[in-house]
Every structure is written in C-alpha cells, then in structure tokens.
Amino acid sequence: MVVLSLAGPRGIPHDPGAARPAEKSVAMHGCPCGSGVPLDGCCGRFLDGGALPDTAEELMRSRYTAYATGAVDYLLATQVEQDGEAVESWAREARFTSLEILQTAAGGPGDDQGVVEFAATWETRGQTHVHRERSTFERRQGRWIYVAGETPKAAPLRRESPRVGRNEPCPCGSGRKFKKCCGA
Fold first, then answer.
1. Helices 84-93 and 56-69 meet at what angle, rounded to 10?
2. Is 3 within the bounds of a domain?
3. Number of domains in the chain
4. Is the pTM of this model over 0.70?
5. What is the DSSP string of 68-92?
6. 22 to 18, 32, 51, 147: CA distances (angstroms)
7. Which end of the chain, N or C, is less packed with Cβ atoms under 10 Å?
C-alpha cells in the first residue's frame, strides 16, 4: 500500500485523524462525490492519506470531496499551482451539493495523463451555481496531480425560426407590429 506524505503544503504536518469541518455530517452518509459509498470507504481514505487515487477520476472525485469537507491541505497537495487563499476561501464559503462526471479520457491505472469533464453544483449566499470544467491530470512520481482546467465553451444558440423584425407583424397573432406588442 502506498501512503501519502503526512506533510501538508509548505511542509506543515497534516493530522490524518483530525476532523474536517463537514466530515462529521457526511462520515456516516454517502460520500460527497456521489458514489453512494460511505466517505470512509470512498474518498475519505485518500483525504486521510491512507491510499492514493488509482485513476484521474478518483482524484477528481476526492478533490471535490475535499472542497465539500474543507480539506484544504489535500487540495493543495494534489495540484500544481499553490493558490492556497483562493482554494481555502472557496472551500469555506461554498456548500457543495453534487458532482456529475460527464466524460473521462485516459487517466486509468496504467496511464500518465487523463482528462475528466465534470459539473459541480454548489451554493453560496442562497444562490445555486454550476461549474463545468475539463480538468487535466498527470501522474507524477506515482501520484495523480491536478494540472489545469478549462471551461468548455457552450454551443452557439441556434434559432428555430427566423428573427422577427421590429416592424413585422407580431408572431403572437395580435395583428400589431412586433415592436408595439411582444417586442416592447
């Protein structure tokens, strides 16, 4: 069994037994990653340093769980760039509600690179948000690491019917010009 280093970012010791902010509420329930398995049998083993993710998707799911449970040390230890303040702020302020894995490419146990596309839903200040991203992962020294992410561009909006001109009859059937009816 391979074990993660117990040192967190910048060499700060990480106590694998220390409770994470939201862990108490999810430990006996399903893992926040949506697998349906209890946290301890799913992503918790990665967050606590008891095991390493075997695939890029497992790392993606465990990173989502780290955001959901406030395990900032794990997030920083599993990514290339170290913007600790932004990571900690987002993990603290948001309530993560669901993760959907949309697509994976490579990133298996025998691969050194992988891509995972996902949609993560979270709430802040009473508003629900969805973050969709294509994340790139690399295996470095036997460990999967988050390298970068890009937001997929939305498909262009296609109209089913031609655009109605301002001076044309309104399509609602009122007999009035569009600009004086539904276009006002």
1. 70
2. no
3. 1
4. no
5. HHT-HHHHHHTBSS--HHHHHHHHH
6. 12, 10, 21, 26
7. N
